[in-house]
Amino acid sequence: GRVICAQDRQHRQVAIKLMKIDSKEYRILRVLSKEPLLFSAESFGCVIPPIDFLEMGEHCFVVMPRWGDSATWPWFSTVREALDYMRSLLKGLCFLHERLIAHRDIKLSNILMNHIGRFEQIHKNPFRKQLRHEGRALYALLDFDCAVMFPRTSTPAERRLPGRESFIFGGNYSYDTAQGELDYDPFAYDVAALGQLFCENFQQLAPITHFLAPFIDRMMTRDIAKRYTAAQALLVFDDFCSRLSPWQLDTAPPPIDDRCDPENHETWARLPEDFVQQWSSHREPKLPLSTKVLRWICMQPLGYRVVQWARRICAVFTARPSLKAYGRSV
């Protein structure tokens, strides 16, 4: 709708997006345009950078490099290639969070690859396979329609958003607000959403790379205090990957299991018993009945409002600080 493709004077493929100058997305892109890491081939931050701004009154045409979508197609030839993809997304999320930018809409369609191909031909496209094999494939996050950026002077308590704002149509999601929570941490939400994307697309790799089971569970855990931050997840991921053998990295990864339920997957059941016992502290427990009931109520007509009303009453009596006004995002 608001994005068109073109070619600039240097014959580079670009995408041009129209947006309002007073929008949060515009302000975020202005900040990203000043980040040297997004223009570095050696230390690319895995976020699509804006390269020009054409302002016209209250609107602006933002020019960005044109990359290709459907970044997981064709499917990866080796586990190493799949892990490179996962690491790029962790790196991109870490880059944003370090600058207090919460993406809030992590999904496959918002992940691009540095190769453009016709949609109907991507499954058989040999150039993507060649880029991956040569280690030249790059992946990056984009689309800041729903993103929020907080001031450097803000406190963690001020970096929370109303629970109702977590529901974004067509986006990936976390279950952090599925029980009618009044507010939520958008940064922790991002990590859980990316963990869910990993679970849905890569949990079948766990029998080859065992660490993915505890790693993904810790990204998605319902105990948010124990959940990795983006920076922690990247460090742990790199540490785990450094311990993999060449045969593990060069093994062909199984295809996506379309039946995967992020909260009821059987990843651990396919792992050695000694490994399961060693990492049992990272294993996410089954969903409690009380949580299932709360979610069921919230999915009913008016159910979500009723649960939030009850939570507000409880919050008044407990004097929760999170009931203070929101709006510190910029």
Automatic annotation (TrEMBL):
Instruction: Supply the name of the protein.
Output: Protein kinase domain-containing protein
Protein kinase domain: residues covered: 1-330
| Cited Pfam families | Pkinase
Per the UniProt record, the source organism is: Botryobasidium botryosum (strain FD-172 SS1)
TM helices/strands, residue ranges: none
Task: Provide any one GO MF term from the record.
Answer: ATP binding
Q: Which domain of life is it from?
A: Eukaryota
Q: Which InterPro entries match?
A: Kinase-like_dom_sf, Prot_kinase_dom, Ser/Thr_kinase_AS
